[in-house]
Amino acid sequence: MRDFRWYKWGLFYSNREDSRIFVPKSNPWMGWTLNFANPYSYIVIAAIVLFIVIMANLELFLK
To answer: What pLDDT is stored for residue 12 in this prediction?
Structure first.
């Protein structure tokens, strides 16, 4: 049984004592989520957004 006290609104995992960046979701068959109490999770989000922006504008970068 999962400890749901670390899930905010049932969606966002936030546990400062847990050093993992990626943790299983409350329903493990749904995949993984970020530990939003870990500062490195925001670096992961920024890297994903940056990748999307670069790929969306790749044509502009290659000119």
So the answer is: 87
